[in-house]
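Predict the assembly for these two chains.
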Amino acid sequence: MNDVLQTFQEYLSLPFVRYAFVVVTLIALCSSLLGVTLVLKRFSFIGDGLSHVAFGAMAVASVLKLSGFENMLVVMPLTVVSAVLILKTGTNAKINGDASIAMISAGSLAVGYMLMNKFPSSSNISSDVCSTLFGSSSILTLKSSDVLFCTVMAVAVLGVFVLLYHKIFSVTFDENFASATGVNADRYNLLIAIITAVVIVTAMNLVGSLLISALIIFPPLSAMRVFKSFRSVMICSAVTAVVCSSVGIAVSILLSTPVGATIVCADIVSFAIFSAISKK
Amino acid sequence: MKRQIDCKNLSLGYGSKIVLSGLNFSVSEGDFLCIVGENGSGKSTLMKTLLGLQKALGGEIKFDGLKPSDIGYLPQQTPAQRDFPASVREIVLSGFTAKMGLRPFYSATEKKSAENNMKKLGIESLSSKCYRELSGGQQQRVLLARALCSAEKILLLDEPVTGLDPQAQAEMYEIIKNLNKSGVTIIMISHDVNSIVKYSTHVLSLGKNTFFFGSVNDYINKNIDKNINKNKNFRGGDTLHE
């Protein structure tokens, strides 16, 4: 045990490991807060859908030979637009919310893979695709600028959730009532869509597009098993997310398992624990 | 009595499709108006228009000293709400969100008045209970308390007793009646003829191309005629078979 602790301490003395810890924790925190609203609005799959859109957009960016920050200039707007479209059609009777998510998600995944295949940016396409979908070890090569970007995003998301907490509750619980009494529900839905897109694009670089869904839905669902008020669900979801991601990243460093998958496994374990508690 | 809402020659519908036209009615302070009509007769369109969620296609609605947001609203429950993790207090307080503007938190006055509204509806002992664990009747009272927080002059109730057992229905009607007695104007959509006769002061009946607006007594007289006619027809059919 002492050996393990010592190894862990050695790892923690490395700056890139600390960066990874900070970034993972912040992203888990943001997506878990957002997740409560999305799960309750019946948009659990939006994480999956939007991350596929971001995957497609990244393929476009790599075809255009963009890199780093320029990448974001393509990926971010495309994802935000898709998020707005998905949340808008959710209220439209012609195409239901879940159908529009499935459509956009499958479509952009296919287009993205086709582009990557036809215009390869490196010789190893399958590893490119794999790292975009499942996250790469790039989490351990983060620079301090990445940490800064992530912190700014997290502060903004937290700020929105603290300042607009009651409005977000109102719009999530009963959109009809909210707009009937004069709350501009569309504006808050738009805001939620934009935050969702920003969080997902940022988180994608960390855990990859297939696993971002898990970060969004597991902590809220765990919290809802046990807690019964909106506020306690929010707080518990955030705490669970932070604990699980810290445990996950620690385990992945010590056992050299893939970061994203390990975090999600920690989330699955926590869900099982919460379910067991709720049954008692 | 002071006029609160005055609708003249109103046309309602979606896009360019007109569902209702030439509608005239008014609501005065202290009225208990029931809106009845078959499915698709435009009840919910009328309601959305009154709430300002939708524009009228023609005619005018005059609110005397009121904004559409001064109308409290008790919507029908959505499936998503039935398993929503929220305490009763959180839901009742959310009636104030529209009045908050940019202010991020509820004021002390708002919290106090939420407590009062919960007391008024007999749910103060449930205030920290979880909404999804309440009975249907209790849930409706929570939503009614929320509506009272958002507006105190007029309440618009969309089929408030649907899905409740007879006992809970009777309790709900008593609560609504008492609110009406204390001076709240009630506009209620309902299918339940007995309750309309028992509680309302005015009836607006919507049908294909025809509608009726008047006092509940006029409505009863008119309806008795109709029922007698119906019974005659029915008997006629029976004799044919004999």
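Residues 57 and 75 of chain A are 5 Å apart (CA to CA). The domain at 2-275 of chain A is CATH 1.10.3470.10 (ABC transporter involved in vitamin B12 uptake, BtuC).
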